[in-house]
Fold these 3 entries.
Entry 1:
Amino acid sequence: MDHAPPRPPAGAPPARINLYSDTQTKPTAAMKDAMMRAEVGDEQHGDDPTVHALCDRMAALMGKEAAIFLPSGTMCNVVAILTHCRPGDEVIAHKHSHIITSEGGGHCAFAGAMLTGLEGERGMFTPETLRAAIRPRTRYAPPQALLEVEQTANFGGGAVWPLEQLNAVAAVAHNEGWSTHMDGARLMNACVAAGIPAAEMVASMDSVWLDFTKGLGAPLGAVLCGSREFIGQAWRWKQRLGGSMRQGGIVAAACLYSLDHNVERLAEDHTNAKALARGLRQVQGVSVEDPETNLVFFDIGATGMTVPRLQEKLAMQGIWVSGMGNRVRACLHLDVTAPMVEDAVGAIREALAAA
Ligand SMILES: *Cc1c(COP(=O)(O)O)cnc(C)c1O
């Protein structure tokens, strides 16, 4: 089995309207300029000033004691689980969470963690559902160690955990003596949509990370935050996994740039997502989920066209969307403008009319 990602088919035009993912954003000239000017050192030797500036800024933003720079969000999750858990420990998350569905089983492979997925609408669950998952503390049951939540919930349609519900599930976990961890790949989308500062949003979390390669538009990097003790231990796992970098300041500068310029503008992506959903609702046979942030999920089952066929037809016009089972996902980000959204609605209507 070949696990390498497929290359684009020969002859397909380059993406003109790229709704595939907010990971597809390209660094702007201004961001590259900030990277060019970055002061750098040896990150794993502890003397890259730009990486330190990014970590200090992120710790302050999240209201945590310390932070660590890592190459990707996936590595943040695996480092966090390795640090919070011992082999055999149980981690409780939503059944559609990224750690369960999309990280190659790394948490079992590396941390020996047992991942349990809870049911719940839009990628979230209630304190009652979590309470029902508490096991007796006997030698028979796996030791329960960690609650994991995703903000926003990706496969939940980019849904935002209401702060009260987030705090309520964290309280259940802490009451049992478990730790709490947030996959904050799109945390700033949630904060902008809800109008809640990040530190307040994550106050009930023992650890949290933010991805810079999603809507924030940087080419690489994610930062994991937590207590000084937690981040001190996380450094050993970063080293063991080969995540320690050298002149990491080159990319940390892009992340700092994105915090200055690309956070508030996420509101535009949310507006564009709502416009896309409104447009798609007018298309016969399409059933659209209400977008809360920058992700728009829609079902085309009633049109008789399959998701891969629609993707192919759109790709021939330079429009990329992603397929998630029988749902289509369109993702808004800083390289997609309001006129492009209108264009995309027209192209989708036409492609489906042919079905
Ligand atoms: C993208 C994503 C990740 C993984 O982040 P990478 O930087 O791509 O490794 C984890 N969780 C969620 C919810 C994501 O959307």
Entry 2:
Amino acid sequence: MTQLLKRFIDRTHIAYFSMEIAIHPEMRTYSGGLGVLAGDTARSCADLQIPVVFVTLISRAGYFRQEIAADGQQVEHPDWWDPAQFCKPLDAMVALRIEQRAVWVRPWLYVHTSPHGDTIPILLLDSDLEQNLPEDRELTHYLYSDGEKYRLKQELILGLGGMRLLQALGFRLHTYHLNEGHAAFLTLDLLNRYRFPEEDVRPGEPLYDLAEVRERCVFTTHTPVEAGQDRFSYELFASMADDLVDIDELRQIAGSTQLSMTQLALNLSGYTNGVARRHAETTRHMFPGYRVHAITNGVHVGLWTHAAFAKLYSETWPNWHHEPEILVRAMQLPNDRLWDCHLTAKTELVGHVHALTGIRLERDIATLGFARRMTGYKRPLLLFSDVERVAAIAARHPLQIVLAGKAHPRDEEGKAAIRRLVQLTQQLRGRITCVFLPNYDMRLAQVMVSGVDVWLNTPLPPMEASGTSGMKAALNGVLNLSVLDGWWAEACVEGVNGWAIGTEDDAAAADNHANLLYARLEQVVLPLYYSDTNRWRDMMRQSIGNIGYYFNSQRMMRRYASEAYLR
Ligand SMILES: *Cc1c(COP(=O)(O)O)cnc(C)c1O
């Protein structure tokens, strides 16, 4: 272990900080899309041998395990996992001063190994140490738990604890990547590192060399709404971290009335990225005056391609894992093999649904999938705006629907949507086979994005920064039917690789999206599925080819490496 760690320390130049990282299905260190993106980033860094160390919290109790009661109520359970099964504790510890007392933090090391045997390190920060007060031992247990105090302390541990541990271990780094504003406190450590010597600072002049800090920071923002961004009052911040930095100067960097983690990150990063072209534009409107780049998100092809398709791709292009651009040649894939792979994935979904719910899906019936974080702007109920109309469509063109998704424990609207969806599955019984599967996670996502025929996405524009599950679906020849927001606005070729609901500039017409969705399903998608198998398979190839070759995390990380890290 020490030998391996020494090798990581010697070769690594970049640190990537993220509140959540989806590393392994049994490690509950993630909640959803942000963590999955961070995990796919790590996997691609290993594949491409980009010398990055990843830093996150250990989240021993995870986000939560979702149980769905008979009435549709979401029940949340702690989702404990055992770090010792996957990670090694490192012999290093640092203390932070939080709320006028020492909070000790220790890292665990997880080593991710790529299919070619290349490795990257992931450090998971843990405060559950006997040196700490019982209250502080829980600070790294619950991911996105309630309470702004708890959240602030977690972000101090991630940013400052992470920086100090990297230094204590001997890492020499030139770039720090902040995945979302949660990680922005790492800049406070850099501010202190690049503080001008006391005697050189005249009254009224800055205390910190901001240019030096900016040269080292890269920021990826994911939140296109003000309300979604972390903010703390300066009183709370000062009561938690009293003598960390000069508060007056911090106000100039992070916002005069409240400490905005997004503003802190924006002002101290030399390179800021939005996660899709459209999202970069939205971010420029929200924060005028900042240069916001657009490296669109991607997904890891090795993780998200079903084994049957992966085998077919490997036979056709032996190096496709490393160079997924080759998927652009998907027109080479033979019709019957393609369909066999799809049926293999669909059969697995059918088996999975039966095991979980006792309900039998039919393999020959068009199957629609929708799985998201259950929250207002994703509009999980849009498909059911007019239940009778859905039932009437299904009466002419048989239809099955598979649903899943967690709502944040405090998101009452999201939890109400789950209750309504579960009731609808019961109400529609006999007319449409519709199921809601509990506890959406990486494993379930893999089964769903490969096993359905059509992947539905209905966000309210411009709220979906990128979205990534549709990219996973495309790798498996599943066709996207989606509102033109986030990544789909730049990927969709209507009727060729999937279908749009509405047009790109009709956010005002969002009220009409349900009608447009019904019309597409009834007039285009379902008739094609049942009557023109060849065209459907052509579209599957287009989906694999002209979506898979581009919207993957190899391309994303090659761009980050050349445009953001090697600036
Ligand atoms: C990919 C993924 C997400 C993100 O999906 P979106 O398309 O961004 O909504 C969320 N949760 C899990 C478990 C995933 O695998």
Entry 3:
Amino acid sequence: MIKNRIEAVIFDWAGTTIDYGCFAPLCGFIEGFKSKNVEITLEEARKPMGMLKIDHVRAISAMPRIQHEFMKQNSRDICEADIQDIYHRFESTLTDNLLCYTDIKPKVIETVALLREAGIKIGSTSGYTRAMMEQIADKVAENGYQPDTCVCADEVPKGRPHPYMMWKNMAELGISDPRHVIKVGDTVSDIKEGLSANTWSVGVIMGSSELGLTEQQVQQLSDEQLGSEIRRVRSAFYAAGADYIIMDMGELPRVIEKIEERLAQQEAHKLLTPGPLTTRQSVKHAMLADHCTWDEDYKAITRSVLRDITEISANTDDFAAVLLQGSGSYAVEAMIQCFCRDDEKLLIIENGAYGKRMIKQAELAGKCFVTMSFDMCTAIDVNAVEARLISEPDIRAVMFVHSETTSGLINPIRELSTLAHSLGKLVLVDAMSSFAAYEIDMEKWGIDALAASANKCLEGLPGLSFVVARKELLEMESSSKSLCLDLHDQYLGLYEGGGKFRFTSPTNILLALRQALDDYRMEGGLTARSARYHCNHEALMKGMGALGIRSLVPEIWQSDIITTFELGALNFETMYGYLKSHGFVIYPGKLTDIPSFRIGTIGDIFPNDIEKLCETLRDYMKG
Ligand SMILES: *Cc1c(COP(=O)(O)O)cnc(C)c1O
């Protein structure tokens, strides 16, 4: 079902909607060059098809074989006056020919009717001049096809592959978003016109100029011959960058449906989750460049990312960031693998699922560890930790989660770190969902290493995590039993290798992170970002309070990152479905005892988004 996200389809004329195989202009080019004693082949005549016809003559004249042949026949180079002569001969031959080629191609009339029924407007562009078009438009209309708009190549500053004919159509049809427009054509220059206009570009194979066959010729070819010709056209359209390639116009409605599905996904949802998050257009856009891992420019970008990440929580003389392929858990696990010696006791303090995950990771890594657990809705008790560290002096390292995304509470990182550090312990922190949103001063608070990832409060994309650690830790031979999670080795690669990842680097994701860091600075860094998240959280508490929905973590321990609410009489599945259909994605609860749900307030989210969410939730609860 076409849903009206696509507002217009702009068709080419000859070879696309009329004139099967695009034969009308061909004789003209051949006759034109013949007037200068140069024989051109059908293939040469077709090659630039789709361009403004004078440009088409120029393109043929620029072919080396034609230039050579012209020199041989005329003992001089082809000049502008020759081109004009050839063009005039072309024009007069074309006039005789045009009306013979006004038949509408199969399935065009039905498809156009179907599109109009769906509310889609029909535009058109042509390599013909207006004068040529006037000779055929009425006849074609009589035959049953009449687009709403028609722009000819001589009515804009430049014809194909430039975008102006497309944009003039859009202006006349009153359409402003090129992503809601589809170009359909039968030549490489049509495909390029669609792409340069930033619209969707569709190539049609059968009856195209690129295929260059009449309907009769098509029928006479063996399956094998036709198959090979079709493959040739398909690969030409593909190489030109076509978004979709169809056999005939009957396939267009299905393509429109597919494009509309893609548009629907992009319009999409505000993710009110703990990551991946809603990200800025600029961050996603940064991924459009492809890079090689070895490339100097790419390595320089990597180095700048390492430096900027480190600076967020530490000074860069004593600390360094190590990027790691993979989600946040990879960085946490790497930290456990590398910084805790097998024979030295590690204390893992947990009050949520992420803390429990660290225990699992330490267990699998074969580390010697002990644990302390607190209720999911209470912050870690610093006094209890102090007592434990004093009574168990062989504990060498302490590890905990700063912002427990399970519940939404924030642990007293400063007090815990300074305490453990003052007792001579190594301090390792999972700062996944707090990094870049809460102040962390590794140096001052005695934090030796922390783990975080690109797709939380830095608002980058998932696929890259990192550890910021004291350089002395990174420089030591690591105790990792994993090759991939070896921070020491990764550190050497990244720093001694001048920004080189040991193994394939997620290049596009790194570019997105580079942009995310720039956006972070542009927003105003930690101060501005934490203030925005705080406003989001306040808006959420206010809105939910008005709906009588209670949060579960006491406000003194509550973070601005994500908030857990009591589900009460609400049904999560139906609520989720309703909110999603209204553009919001929320998260299930992770508390073990009380049924709950979570709403994240990080990412490219603003207080008005949160207000809208609460209104939507109110509507849901009313209905
Ligand atoms: C997101 C997150 C992680 C990492 O989880 P992944 O699914 O591996 O990205 C770890 N700890 C906390 C506190 C988190 O919020």
